[in-house]
Design goal:
434 Repressor (Amino-terminal Domain), alpha+beta, 262 residues, five-stranded antiparallel β-sheet, 2 domains, 11 helices, single chain
Length: 262
């Protein structure tokens, strides 16, 4: 009967999603050493209901998914994976490389390269990946631009694969739309890139050479959900000329520049 069609389709979709979610939940339950009964009791539900969820016979609510995830002490990114597997939108914010704050050294270095910010500049947050890959941003001043571009494209690709949010997917599409970026990422397989824990960046502007390397720090055990996706990038000088320039800009003892992103 026509009146029953939507309900049947919804049930079929929920069962399929629940099956994927159930396999993922069982996998995490095994990793964390919970029996089905132990997890049910700890999460304040029944073993029968948990069994139905794992088998796909019942679709968990968002609240139940979060309760199970918190009970198993899953990281926020893995909590988002559970949400997606069950057919829900991710619960926590994604990583989009938007600049939240920069210290004096980082701001002065950027002003040296790009000039003072216009009074009528857009109020939207600065995206570090876009700024480094765009011709309108820092790209013209980066000598080793290909190396920097690959680093950020691979990072955003990993984020898009991990969180599955439209915002991260849109950012990846925006980066790949810049000239030469897609071709560069397609001609250099990830396994041939020689991943490094630091990224060297060589800026050159008006005869001034700035050689830096960057590291990105994250909080391994944040107490607030909004902190887990925050990354703090530090720029360190690789030669004396760069150290003197950063030291003068920062007007502080330690010649570094830093910024925090989400």
């Amino acid at each position: 009967m026509p009146m029953n069609a939507p309900r049947s389709q919804k049930s079929a979709g929920a069962t399929a999603n629940g099956s994927v979610f159930g396999r993922l939940l069982r996998d995490w339950r095994g990793r964390r050493g919970f029996s089905q009964l132990d997890l049910a009791l700890a999460a304040r539900t029944t073993q029968r209901h948990l069994s139905f969820i794992e088998s796909g016979r019942a679709t968990p609510s968002r609240a139940m998914i979060l309760r199970l995830a918190v009970t198993m002490s899953l990281p926020l990114r893995q909590q988002n994976e559970l949400m997606l597997a069950a057919g829900y939108a991710p619960a926590w914010r994604d990583r989009c490389w938007n600049l939240l704050r920069a210290n004096r050294g980082a701001m002065n270095m950027t002003e040296f390269l790009l000039g003072p910010a216009s009074a009528d500049s857009p109020s939207e947050p600065v995206n570090l990946a876009v700024a480094l890959l765009s011709h309108d941003g820092l790209r013209p001043f980066i000598i080793n631009w290909q190396e920097v571009a690959l680093y950020f494209v691979r990072g955003v690709q990993a984020d898009a694969h991990a969180d599955g949010t439209p915002e991260t997917a849109d950012l990846l599409a925006r980066l790949l739309a810049f000239p030469d970026v897609r071709a560069l990422s397609e001609t250099t397989p990830p396994e041939e890139e020689g991943q490094s824990p630091v990224l060297p960046i060589h800026f050159l502007h008006d005869g001034t050479s700035l050689r830096l390397f960057t590291t990105i720090a994250t909080l391994g055990t944040p107490r607030d959900v909004t902190l887990q996706e925050v990354r703090i990038e530090f720029f360190f000088p690789m030669d004396e000329m760069t150290a003197q320039a950063l030291g003068a800009w920062a007007q502080q003892t330690r010649p570094t520049a830093q910024g925090s992103m989400r």
